[in-house]
Amino acid sequence: MERKSQSILANFGIPISPGSRPSLPRRDTSGSIVGRSSTRYSVTALYSIAAEHDVEVEDDLAKAQRRLRELKSRISAQSKKNFVLERDVRYLDSRIALLIANRMALDEKQEMESHFEESDQQVFAFPDNRKMNQYGNLFFLLQTEPRHIANLCRFVSLTEIDTLLQTVMFTLYGNQYESREEHLLLTMFQSVLSTQFETTSDFNSLLRANTPVSRMMNTYTRRGPGQAYLKAVLSDKINTLIEHKDLDLEINPLKVYEQMIKKYEEENGSLPPELPSSVTPDVAAANADVKAIIEPRINMLMDIANSFLTIIIKSIEQVPYGIRWICKQIKSLTKRKYSDATELMICTLIGGFFFLRFVNPAIVTPHSYMLVDGMPREHPRRTLTIVAKMLQNLANKPTYLKEEFMVLLNPFIESNKKRINKFLMDLCEVGDFYERLEMDQYVALSKKDLVLHITLNEIYNTHALLSQHLDKLAPSDKNHLRIILEEIGPSPAQVPRIENKTVELPLFSRWETPIQDIASALMSDNSVTQNDILYMETKSIFVQLIRSLPRMAEKRSINLAKIAETAATAKDAALVRKGIKVKEMIRELQEANVIDRSDGYKLMTEEVALEIVHLGNLREKVNEEIRSLDLVFKTICDHNNYLRSQLDSYKAYLLNVRQQTSKDAIGGPGASVVKLGGKEKTQKIKVLGPYKFTHAHFERDGVIVDTNVPDNRRHNIFFNITSPVPGTFIIALHYKGREAPILEMDLKLDDLLEKQQDNIVSLDLEYVQLNVSRLLQLLNKTFSKRKV
To answer: Cα–Cα distance between 761 and 759 in angstroms, integer?
Structure first.
């Protein structure tokens, strides 16, 4: 690369020698500058960032960068849609299970349609400007101070974590390829992991239990960069394996024995006495024929696992930076928390994340990660599961309590242990990003259009969780988080899905002054002078001019004075402004003795030429990244189609269950439209009720568990229960002599079933507390047998 750079510089007429070569900043793998020789380089990255977003430059690089940014934005948006779809599939799956288990499985079609009706993704104005500003302040604080989200993750329950993760991973830090958001997200991970290490007393349970932290790590690996890595590294290997549909590599002796006697019985009609139909695992393992079947399979499995391991180890440079950085934090925290931890213990924890949370799920279910077309057949699927277990046992300390037969694969463990440990330790060899993040924060504070696209329910849910745990998150009255939340007030209720619009939330900080001029902000540090800023800005403008004047870039030498004059006399007004400006800047720099006209502005000329070389290489990298991300985007879109088809199948199945169990509720006045096989069919649904129950009746049957109604008024209280559509019930509390009810509550069957499943005993009706299980029994008895 250096020889190529020198060759291009020579074409510009610039002599390169060890003594004259400019001292450029050296960067680590994360892009941070290491060992700066000049304070000027502290702002070089800032002007490079600005140049990348320069809308006035229209060369091939600018167009490629624009296309890359658009592609990354689409990937981020599509990833969020997939996450939401996966949650919907799980929701339907749980609802089907509840409805099948309940004999009162009536048709809640209208309620379910409203739940799954697509939200209008058109951005619309937030209804209250004051609230918009308050929420903009809140989410800027959450985004730029990740410790608040990290602390919140410690307190939320497993039932709440998915909704929070959706907001954090795909909205708050949703731009998966934007360095500032990615670095802030990783900073949050560092805090979460640090807390996990501090609060976990048992080393062996670290990062293994199903906790909000482990769920966070799983979700992080499913983002675009992780998906791209899995597809690039594993897809071909898995597809090659599943082509052998009939290759059976089962090594569980009991299963092998069962297959063997089944085949013998099919061929001979009966079994000999020495082959009983049912045996223990030990007897099966001791059978000579079973041993003969398993032995060659062991060798094949070790060969296959070795091929997977080799390709994974060779791919270390392709592993996304964020995943490697998390491995680095696990290593660092283990050393700090457990001073006597061996390298083997450290590798066990890193392997628990890299393989258990990242690689192995994709090997076991490649269709879910869109690495293969369709679900693999039974035998390849079993082979992939065994291979994943082999890799997991290799990365972790193997245990064979549940599957003793896996001990047969110990030679694979013994021969590869040093190899895998070296790989896991090498994963941690990445640089930090804190200096780059500091620069990113300068840029963020200077932006006037920093916005977050977020749904109303994401705002309200985050608000509710923060308020719920505010005393732990912000115990001090002076804490910024507490001040903001107390000003906003109580969190609004979640809105129906159809009303869950996306808003454009402008982000700002009321405690940090927005930076109007990055240069002024940097100059507040005495190590960066006005001349440093002026030098970098001048160089940046010359680079833009050369990119905007292709004929200048084609010349064999760079003449800064001529470039400035050409731009100043061009027909393009933007070029003229820049040309005049840069001529004045050169004059100021010369008067300050920063550059010298007599040597043709040698130092700046060399640095401009090097920047052009860098941009040339950058264009190749950008185009290569576009090609790679095009495949990622296609994969994510394919996965979206897969999820949608799965969702449609679940809906159709759910509709079929309801139709079979709610025939008695169909007929009479009212109608609903049901889509069957692509055709619309109108079915009339009768409103059932109202059915009247007295306060005494509810008390006698145990439906009322507590009441605030005075004794002398209870005989005047009664309840009317109506079912306007199957699965929906309206309970109205009435007082004799009054036409209108005192209060009404709209209940969904799903909600009641879920409360019962979660052991929630009572339902608050303001004046009375109702027993959930007894209420369900009452509704079953009242409505399931009503004939039309």
So the answer is: 6
Buried b (16+ CB within 10 A) or exposed e, 592-610: eebbeeeebbeebbbbbbb
Rounded-to-10 torsion of CA 342, 346, 347, 350: 180
Residue 318: DSSP 8-state = G
Predicted model pTM: 0.58
DSSP code at position 375: P
What are the sequence ranges of the domains in the chain?
Answer: 222-427, 680-783
Instruction: Kindly provide the residue ranges of all beta strands, DSSP E only, lying in 30-175, ordered along the sequence.
Output: 33-34, 123-124
The answer to whether the CB of 114 falls within 8 A of the CB of 497 is yes
The DSSP secondary-structure symbol of 712 reads G
| CA separation for the pair 494, 464 (Å, rounded) | 10
Helix 60-101 vs helix 602-661: crossing angle, to nearest 10: 20
Structure tokens at 45: 């990255």
What residue type is 340 in one-letter code?
Answer: D
**Secondary structure (DSSP) of 58-99:** -SHHHHHHHHHHHHHHHHHHHHHHHHHHHHHHHHHHHHHHHH
Superfamily the domain 222-427 falls into: GTPase Activation - p120gap; domain 1 (1.10.506.10)
- As a whole number of angstroms, the distance between CA 459 and CA 467 comes to 12
Residues 244-303 have pLDDT tens digits of 888 999 999 999 998 988 888 888 877 787 888 888 888 988 999 999 999 999 999 999
Segments in 524-601 forming alpha helices (H) = 530-548, 550-553, 560-568, 573-591
pLDDT, tens digit (0-9, with 9 covering 90-100), for 432-491 = 765 555 545 545 544 556 788 888 889 999 999 999 999 999 988 889 999 999 999 999
